[in-house]
C-alpha cells in the first residue's frame, strides 16, 4: 500500500516533535512536509539535535505542506487551525488538529473560553472530536478531527464507565490534575524557568482552565445530563505525564471490587486503557513515552465517594500518540499501528 | 537567662536533623544531648557531613539525653514515645513528640489507625495537641506536646477560618495533598529510590492515610460538628514541601474577595501564616526552608465551591519548625524565637 | 525465519528490564524465559507494572531459562555469570554477559579489581569483549560476549579515532564522567535515596572505579601502547545517561575542524555514532532512550589539548541496547535490528 | 553601632535576591535601597512572593539607592558597574560588584574576554579583587571590591594550598566544573527551559568561558608563575551548587594523607573552608544554602595526579555570601557576621 503522505504544521512545537518521533517508526506513513513559522529554512535536526542523522528535512511553509500531504497534523495556537483547515480541505486534504479549534460542539463555549468566534462554521460539520475509545464510531465521513486536550483525555477515560453506569452523582465531580512541564510547550516563561519550576509545585488557573468546557462536554454526554465540574490543574516538576485524581460522590454504596469490575468490563477490548489490579495506584512513570492510559479505582467508603486515578503521557496519549491513533482511524489502519511504544520503567 | 537544655531522640532521622539545624541558630537553647539508636557512638557530623565543623556531638542513648535535658524532642516510630515520655516526666522533664503518640484525643482512634492501645493513659491528660495558631491557649500547664503531623498542619491552617465562619458545608471536604519525599523519612524504600521516584508521580494510601483521624479531629472542633473528609496524599518528586488543595462546598455564595478578607481577619496577627493577595496561587517554593504557611483562596462560582491552597515546608512548619514554635510556647519565649529563616526563592 | 529464543537471567534488574523493553519490539526474537532470584514465581508485570497487559511471563529459575533459550543475557553480580555460562555452553547455548566476568583479557586484572580468580579459564577463550563499532570482527566463532561497561563504552567510542591517529599523548588522558542514577541499579542505598540524591552531586570512587582496567585495556589497544588513565565518575541527578568529558594532550597542534573530520571519517558508516557539527556540544538529552552515542569535539588551543565529549544512554548503548546489538552480530542479523528507538527531545 | 546602610542595584536578579535573604538576617545592616531597572515601582515581594510580609520595599532607581546607602552591591551586566561605581564613589559611597568589572588586573584581559575597554581606569586603583581567604589583607584602603566569580572561587580555594606548596605541575591543571542552573540567572533561555534542562546534562562554552582569565590570574599568583588552565563548565540539573573536579599533575609523589594535611594546615583558621576527612568526597548537598566551601583530596597514585574536589553554593560562597563576607571585611565587622546559615542536609 502506498504510504500515507503526512504533513505537520507547528513541527517544532513539542507536539510536533513528538509526532515526528512517533511517525518515523510508523510503517504506513511518510513524512511529506514539516512547517515551522519560527524556523523556516532550517532543518529539523538543527532545531532538535536529537534528530541528527535520523531526519534532516527542511522546514517549509504551510502551503508546501498542504501540497505534499494527504493529511496534516496541526499544532498551532487556537484560532489558527480553522483558517488553515479551510485551505487544506479545499485541496482535498484531511486535518487533525491538536489545538482547540475543533474540540467544542458549541460555538458559544469557544467564544466564552477562547474569546473568538468560528470564522468557518461549515467546517465544524465536517469535523469530529475524537477520543478513540469513546468516539471512534463518529469518525467515518469526517475530514477534520479535533484531537482532544491532554487533561480531558485523562479525565474522560477515567470517568466514562462510572458515568455511563448511572451510579455516580454527576454534579459532584471534582478533578485535581497534575501535569508535567512539557504541557506548557516550548515557549519560554518564568514558570517553566528551571530554577523556579524545579523544587516547586503549585496549582494554576484554579477553576479557570480552558479545558473545562471540553471536559464538561464529554462528561455530560457520558452522564446523559448537563454537569459542571470543579477542575484544578497543577504544574508538576517532571517532563512528562498527567495524573488526574478524580473525586465522585456515589448514589449508592459500591465496593472497590465492583467498581473495578465495571471498568474491566467497559475497557476489556481496549488496548490502550489498562485498568490496574486493586491495591495498585496509577503512577505516571508506568505510562511515560507510551500511548497507555492507566486507571486505578478506589472507594472511600467512609464518605461514599469513588476516587479514580487516571494517568497518561501528556505528549503521547494526551497529544501526538492519540493524534496518530486518530489518523489510523481516519485511514482505516489498525488503530494501534505505530503506537507499540513500551513504557520504560525508569 | 540560662539557656534551655534541649535533647533530641531520633536525632539522625530527618526531623531530628532539621531540629538540629534550627536549634543551632536558636538564641535561647543549648543542644544538650542527641540520641540515635542506629548510630550510637558516632558523631552527628559523621552521619550528616553537612554538620562538619559546626557540631560534632556524639550520639548517646536516651537515658543520657533525658538526664542532660530540660525538654526532649522525640522523632521516633509511633508507640515508642509514650514509654519514653513516662521516663522523662518522672524525671521532671518535658517532651515534644513529633510522632503520633500524643496527637489523637480518643484512644479508640489511635487503636483503629495505629493498631496500639495507650499504655500510659495518665500521660494523655498531661499532654496537648498543638498547632500554635489554633491551640496555643491550651498549652499552659502541660508537660507533653503532641506536635502535629505535616499534612494536618497544612490542612487545619487552610480551613480554620472557613470552618469557623459556618459558611462551609462541613461534610463536603475533599483534600488532595502532595508531599515532598523527605516526608517519608530517611528509611530506604523502592518508592523513594531515585530512579523510581524521579520523573514519577502518584497518590498513595488513597483515602487510608493515618493522618485522617488527626485531620478530622481538628476540623470537627473548628466546624463544631463531627465531620469526615476524603483525604488523598500524593508523593511529589521534590525534596521538601506540601501543597494541600482543598475543596469545600459553600452553603451560600461567597466572593473570592470576601473569602480572602475572612482569612486576612482571622490570621492578621499570625506571623507564620501568610494569606496571599487574590490572583496569586500558593507555591511550595515560596515557603521552603522556612516556618511559613502560605494560603491562597479561590472560589469556583460555577459550582459554588471554595478552593483553598495551603502550602508549608513539611520539615519546618510541618515538623521541626513547628516543634520549636511549640517549645517556645512551652517555655514562655516569643513564639518566633529561632524561626527567622527566610524562604529562598530558589 | 524461526525467531531466536532469548532468555534473561537477572530479568528484574534494571538492565534486564531494559532488555525486555527492547526485545519486545525486536522482530527476530521471542522472549523464552526470564529468571529472577528475588522474584521467582511472580510475573514480570507484578514487579514492573509498566509491563501490565504487555508481558506477564512468570519468573523462573536459571535452568529453565537455559533450556528454553538459544541465547541468554545475564545481568548478575560479577563472579556469577562464569559458572552460569559453563552450564549454558554445556547445553549448546550462547551467553551475552552484561556484567564484568568476560570483559578483561588478563585474569590478573580481574583478580586485582574484582577480588576473584577465573574459575573456568577455558571459557575465556570462547568469549570476546565487544563494542561492535570497534571489535565486531572478533565475534565470529565465539560463544560468549562480554558486553562492555557503560563508562568504557562512552570513553572508548569517544577516543578511538584520536588514539588510532597517533596524534594524542596517550599518557595524558583524564576522564571526567557523569552517570545517571540507574547506573547503580535497582538496589537501595543511601546515595540513591531520593532526598539525598536529588539536588546533590558528587564524584565517587575517585580514581578507583572498577571500570578503570576495562577502559585502559581498550584504549591501550587503540593507542598501540600501554597507557594509564585518570578516571573519575560522578553521580548525576538524572535517571539515565552518561556524559564523559575527556581531556587529551595533543602531540602537535590540531584544529577543531581537522579533529572533527578525523572522527567523521572514522565513524562515517556507523549508524549509532553521531559526530556532531562543530559548535554543538553533546548533551545526554539527545541520546536518552536510544542506542546512539553522540560525540562533540573541541580543542583548547591555549593549552593544546583536545576535549572530547561523549554521551550515551547508560541503559541502552551502555547496557541493554549494545547487548542486543551484540546479539544481532552473534546471530548474523543486521546490527541495528530492533534498535530503531528515536531519542525523544524531552 | 549605627547599622550600615546597604543598597542593592540589580535587586531582582538572582544574586540580588540572595543578598536580600542574607542581609535581612545580618545584625549590622539595614536595607536602605533596592534598585531594579525591570521592576521599578513594584515592591520586591510582588516580584518574589517568598518575601511576602517579610520585606515590601519599593524598587527604585540607582540614584536613590546611592543616596540612601553607605555601600552598594551591584549585580549587573559587565560594563555597567564601572559607570555606576564612578557615580557612587563621587558621593563617598563604597561598592561591591558581583559582576566582572573589577575582577581582572589587566585591562587587556577584560578587553579580550568581555570586549570592552576600561572607561574609568582610575577606579581600578581603588578596587581590589577579593576572595577573603586569599586576599583579605589587600582590602584596607580600598573603596570597591570586585567580588569573585562562582567558578573561580571554588577553584582558587581548591588549589591554593597545593599551588603554594610548589609540589604541583602548574601547567598541568585541568578543571571540570559543574554548576546548578541559578548560575545562569533569572533571564529566560532555551537551555534553562525546564523540559530541556531537566534530565539533561552537557558542558557549555568548552574551554571558552569568561571566568578563565580570572581563574588563571589567581592561580598564577598562587603558583608564582604564569599558567594556563583547561576549564570546562557544565550545566547541572540542580538549582544550586558548584562542584569543581580539578586534576593536577604532581612534581613528586605525595600521599593522600600528606596532601590532606597540607590543606588542613593551610585552612585551619578559616571558618568557611572545610577540608573533609580522607575517604569522604565533597558533595554540593552539604554546602547548599550556606557559605561553606567543602574540599576533598584524592591522589591517583597510578598516574601521579592529585584530584581536588571543591564545592560551594554558587549563590552564597559563589556570589551573595562572599559579597557579604567582603562587606564585613570592608567595614571591619567579624568576617562571618550574618553568615551563620547551616547547610540543610536535604
From TrEMBL, chains A, B, C, D:
<dbReference type="InterPro" id="IPR058924">
    <property type="entry name" value="AGPR_dimerisation_dom"/>
</dbReference>
<dbReference type="InterPro" id="IPR000534">
    <property type="entry name" value="Semialdehyde_DH_NAD-bd"/>
</dbReference>
<feature type="active site">
    <location>
        <position position="150"/>
    </location>
</feature>
<keyword id="KW-0963">Cytoplasm</keyword>
<keyword id="KW-0521">NADP</keyword>
<dbReference type="GO" id="GO:0003942">
    <property type="term" value="F:N-acetyl-gamma-glutamyl-phosphate reductase activity"/>
</dbReference>
<comment type="function">
    <text>Catalyzes the NADPH-dependent reduction of N-acetyl-5-glutamyl phosphate to yield N-acetyl-L-glutamate 5-semialdehyde.</text>
</comment>
<comment type="pathway">
    <text>Amino-acid biosynthesis; L-arginine biosynthesis; N(2)-acetyl-L-ornithine from L-glutamate: step 3/4.</text>
</comment>
<dbReference type="InterPro" id="IPR000706">
    <property type="entry name" value="AGPR_type-1"/>
</dbReference>
<dbReference type="InterPro" id="IPR050085">
    <property type="entry name" value="AGPR"/>
</dbReference>
<protein>
    <recommendedName>
        <fullName>N-acetyl-gamma-glutamyl-phosphate reductase</fullName>
        <ecNumber>1.2.1.38</ecNumber>
    </recommendedName>
</protein>
<comment type="similarity">
    <text>Belongs to the NAGSA dehydrogenase family. Type 1 subfamily.</text>
</comment>
<dbReference type="Pfam" id="PF01118">
    <property type="entry name" value="Semialdhyde_dh"/>
</dbReference>
<dbReference type="GO" id="GO:0006526">
    <property type="term" value="P:L-arginine biosynthetic process"/>
</dbReference>
<dbReference type="GO" id="GO:0070401">
    <property type="term" value="F:NADP+ binding"/>
</dbReference>
<dbReference type="Pfam" id="PF22698">
    <property type="entry name" value="Semialdhyde_dhC_1"/>
</dbReference>
<dbReference type="InterPro" id="IPR036291">
    <property type="entry name" value="NAD(P)-bd_dom_sf"/>
</dbReference>
<feature type="domain" description="Semialdehyde dehydrogenase NAD-binding">
    <location>
        <begin position="5"/>
        <end position="142"/>
    </location>
</feature>
<dbReference type="GO" id="GO:0051287">
    <property type="term" value="F:NAD binding"/>
</dbReference>
<dbReference type="InterPro" id="IPR023013">
    <property type="entry name" value="AGPR_AS"/>
</dbReference>
<keyword id="KW-0560">Oxidoreductase</keyword>
<keyword id="KW-0055">Arginine biosynthesis</keyword>
<keyword id="KW-0028">Amino-acid biosynthesis</keyword>
<dbReference type="GO" id="GO:0005737">
    <property type="term" value="C:cytoplasm"/>
</dbReference>
